[in-house]
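Team,

Forwarding the record for the chain on the shared tracking sheet. I've put the sequence and predicted structure together so nobody has to dig through attachments.
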Amino acid sequence: MAARRRPWSAVPRRVATLSVHTSPLDQPGAGDAGGMNVYVVEVSRRLAARGIEVDVFTRATSSDLPPVVEMSPGVTVRHVSAGPFEGLGKEDLPGQLCAFTAAVLREEAQHEPGHYDVVHSHYWLSGQVGWLARDRWSVPLIHTAHTLAKVKNAALAAGDRPEPQGRVIGEEQVVAEADRLVANTEDEALQLVDHYGADPCRTLVIPPGVDLDRFTPGDRTAARRALGIDEDAVVLLFVGRIQPLKAPDLLLRAAARMLADDPALRDRLQVHVIGAPSGSGLEAPRQLEQLAAELGIPDLVRFLPPQHSQRLAEHYRAADVAVVPSHNESFGLVALEAQACGTPVVAAAVGGLRTAVRDGVSGVLVPGRDPADYAAAIRAVLARRPLLSAGARRHAGLFSWDRTVDSLVTAYASAAREMAVAARRASAGAVLRPARALGAVRPLPSAQVAR
């Protein structure tokens, strides 16, 4: 291995990124596409801008998809045939991992040994594939979980299904095998250690970023004019997949409570819901519309399909408050995007949202699930909006994808360096210990990541 690889101190030339269940080409806000898709797109583009080629492997979901798509210069999306193109949900994909892995290994086998320098897997399904690729190619496996079954099951939304035991076991295996685990926040890192037995020395805190060139403050009046919104409207915005985990129903209940407290608000209040049914939300795709009718606010709620990023930025600028009431979030990129546009956020005080939103500075974090508490938090934000808007812009400015990629490249290089040391010891006849036991790598301190 050492003879065919570059010096261990160098940055990688080529990264194999695994995103089995959702493609970076999919529109976030529908199906299984969400913050993870944004993460893969933004990181891949910035790696390529640094001269690091990226191949993203994802499952083909249509026979019309070309096998290879250039997403941007230096970033190639490879559609892998694994199972039928349609009719498979995320819960069905474990049975297709063998086929997916075989296709990934065949792609690498068409090149000279050492084609890929690192594997970065996203979500546990990809981690299972990455585990085998790492062993076959003798390269480091970097894994980002994005969500964790044990954490999700502990905060299960009413009407949502618990994650199966097979996923829990699969996550435990990936955590044990990965050379580096990338957590979005300190809380997620602790969850990996406490609930999954992750090695703290291999668990790194690398927050995601936000595109500060696209999501920027702007003229709210102009944004409202472009979207057909009255200038004096009070606009509450939800962006995300329509499913119990994301809890858009809580925003509707909070809006109804605001009207009960102040009936005069009815002439101005608007609730905009941007997204599409997903996950268990597909079982009752009109449930949110029915709830609006039951609450007596169907005329105040505007349902919109997922929006492309440029149009989405206009919606953020036009809103008075963005509301993120999820039962759990590993981070909450929507909250960061809204703040980057100068829109303060009311969010659940859970998971990564406690990092994405700075309570009292860029918005308000709400403990519990009481609609009255959300209504009170929204009113508090409306009363202090100019001050919180400025705080939102400052807070979002602390997070950038370039800083995320800085830390990821450091993680790639350190994992490769550790693997090279282990290989040298093995070739010298020393007793080879597992890479995770070397203990030479420390978690990245907060000062070195996107803060």
